[in-house]
């Protein structure tokens, strides 16, 4: 009997093989709270421990990796994109002080190539393990005719929990708080449409090399740094130190920080406190732009901000750096009347504080 579904371009056998290839990596993320194991229609997670909370708040986040997947596809290198996905999703959970519980993923592709799908999911699973997140389910959907044979996109969603009295946010921020910048690992997963435009306009291919960066593709695929575990460590060790957190993703530096500041507050970030990584400088030069012109698109070396009590700033920085991540004081919160010309004031529907970058970047 002919397989009409296969003739239409959907290979269920390839999908089954992909599941087998990823099974051990996914199962390794499962602790005792995961009920029913691998492969169910829905993932089950035991939350009976929430009875110990006074008022548990569930935190949820969803995201994708964006057009960075085009570079992975061009290089046929798919083992880092999964970490990018977890970074984009799970590190949004910790911003409110929540501990991630579980995550699900979704991969849409033009054709299931089992080894490719397994590489993506193994990357997701490894990053989930690093952040203490159970990968409890997922879906791989084959869309022939809608996506090219080697095209795919990835997305995911996660859930975490925080005690309501310990939730972080702008309402905790006060005059004099210190803004701690926490280093990124590179571009992370934002602004790649601009990256691709710059390279395309300059006639640079992903397999080409740069005197400053080495292989272009490899430099661009450096995976997103994961902040959840080190930040939860700070929250556990210094429970009153961090007042708010900001994940520097789409929208750039100032706008993302402004989202986690209270109305009426402002911060001047001192560019001289850090030197943007070479990848940002080389791309800006290639695109005939200044670094300042890219501040609303790229993170320029800052992946997270922590707004912390002034007396705890040194301890917070030391804790983060003990995890191997550079951190530094980049500014202070002020409250009071002043001209806000040139400041970013909130973003993405949030009417928050005001932020402006000033000075010149360190060499």
Automatic annotation (TrEMBL):
Pathway connected to this protein? Purine metabolism; IMP biosynthesis via de novo pathway; 5-amino-1-(5-phospho-D-ribosyl)imidazole from N(2)-formyl-N(1)-(5-phospho-D-ribosyl)glycinamide: step 2/2
Where in or outside the cell is it found?
Cytoplasm
Which example biological process does GO assign this protein?
A: 'de novo' IMP biosynthetic process
Q: Which SUPFAM superfamilies match?
A: PurM C-terminal domain-like, PurM N-terminal domain-like
Q: Name one Pfam family in it.
A: AIRS
Return one GO MF term. Answer: phosphoribosylamine-glycine ligase activity
Origin: domain of life: Bacteria
Task: Return the HAMAP family for the record.
Answer: AIRS
For this protein, the Enzyme Commission number is: 6.3.3.1
Q: Which InterPro entries match?
A: PurM-like_C_dom, PurM-like_C_sf, PurM-like_N, PurM-like_N_sf, PurM_cligase
Which family is annotated? Answer: Belongs to the AIR synthase family.
Protein name (Swiss-Prot/TrEMBL): Phosphoribosylformylglycinamidine cyclo-ligase
Keyword annotations for this protein, in alphabetical order, are: ATP-binding, Cytoplasm, Ligase, Nucleotide-binding, Purine biosynthesis
Chief place of localization: cytoplasm
- Output a single Gene Ontology CC term carried by this record: cytosol
Q: Which reaction does it catalyse?
A: 2-formamido-N(1)-(5-O-phospho-beta-D-ribosyl)acetamidine + ATP = 5-amino-1-(5-phospho-beta-D-ribosyl)imidazole + ADP + phosphate + H(+)
For this protein, the record's PANTHER family field holds: TRIFUNCTIONAL PURINE BIOSYNTHETIC PROTEIN ADENOSINE-3, TRIFUNCTIONAL PURINE BIOSYNTHETIC PROTEIN ADENOSINE-3-RELATED
- Which residue numbers delimit the PurM-like C-terminal domain? 175-337
